[in-house]
Every structure is written in structure tokens, then in C-alpha cells.
Amino acid sequence: MLDLTRIQEIAQSYSPQELFAALVWQRQFNNFYGDRVITDLSQHSELWCSFLFTKPIFAPDENGLSFGGVIDTLIAMANYHPMPEDSIIHFVNYPADTLHILTENQDTKVSQLVDFGKKWQADSVDVTDGTDESYSFRLKRQLRYRFEGALWGEDKKRDRDAIVISYWWD
Fold first, then answer.
1. 57 and 120 in contact (C-beta within 8 Å)?
2. What is the rounded distance in angstroms from the CA atom of residue 100 to the CA atom of residue 54?
3. Which among 77, 72, 13 has a CA at the least distance from the CA of 49?
4. What angle do CA 94, 113, 134 make, to 5 degrees?
């Protein structure tokens, strides 16, 4: 049963990114320690724009709906206005094993985030910019369109291209 009053209070007090951070924080399984991941992300916020903790996407679908949905969610959270830093909430375990991080398509940021995969003992780290050869031409074009200029700047001339780094734990 949903407590609508409580949901309304949470919705007015926390950003979507804070909600996902809480989900990651409370998760621990095998070599995954959510509190360590969130601590590192918090200490290196200049490297990422948003993140989403979910189930993995094993294969691209012909229309790009599965991974496209992840990209759209990440972009929306990256462009969301931040909430107060003192926001803290508690959830039951969120059944996810894959962390998707949206970042600027910049080599130094990407390489540092890939290195976190080693520190976090991820079983797999994948970088997706929409050019993967396993995608169809049509899907690659759709994904590249979503990534190009996806991260808002102060004006259109400062919009930045995005990329997604996915970490998976078995």
C-alpha cells in the first residue's frame, strides 16, 4: 500500500538523483558496496552528470527503446535542478546490479570513471557513445542524436556531448 502523504513529502524534499543515491547506498552484495560507490561519486562530482542504478541491458533492441530509456532518464536527472544537500532517506533494498553513469564525452573524465570500475570491483565496465558496431545503423543514429548536445550549458554554444559508462556486478 502506498502512503500518498509520505510520497508527497519525499517528492517535495528530494531530487531524483538523491533518490537513486539512497538506493545505491543501501545496496550491498558480492563485491558491491553501495556506500563506497556513493562516497566516491560524491567526492568526484565533477566527473559525472547523473547516474541510474537498475538492471542491465543485455542487448540492444531494434528500435533502441531499452537503452534509449536509460539515456533519457539519465539526461533528465542531469538537467534537474538540485535539491538541498541535507536530504537523506531510507529505502528497502533496490533489486539492481548495474550502475549507469552519464558523463561528458571527455577522455579524462571517462578514463577516471572507468578506473573506478576497478576500485569498485565491477565484473564489467562498458562505455557507450552510440557508435557501438553491434548496433544497427538506425539505432546508432538515434543514440548519437540523443547524446549530442544532451548536457545543457548556459547557452546552446556550450551544450556538451554525453556518454554512458555502465558497471555491472554479478
1. no
2. 8
3. 77
4. 80
- Residue spans of the domains in the chain: they are 18-82+89-168
Q: Which amino acid belongs to residue 53?
A: F
Higher pLDDT, 161 or 58: 161
pLDDT at 27: 84
User: What is the SS3 string spanning 15-58?
Assistant: CHHHHHHHHHHCCEECCEEHHHHHHHHHHCHHHCCEEEEECCCC
Q: Which residue has the cell 573524465?
A: 109
CA distance 142 to 92: 36
pLDDT of residue 60: 54
Question: pLDDT, tens digit, for every residue of 102-147?
Answer: 999 999 999 999 999 999 999 999 888 777 666 666 666 777 777 7
In 37-147 the beta strands, taken as DSSP E runs, fall at 50-54, 98-104, 124-128
pTM (2 d.p.): 0.73
Give the helix, strand, coil percentages of the chain, each rounded to 5: 45, 20, 40
Beta carbons within 8 Å of 146's beta carbon, 6+ residues apart: 68, 71, 72, 75, 130, 162
| Angle, alpha carbons 48-50-52 (nearest 5°) | 125
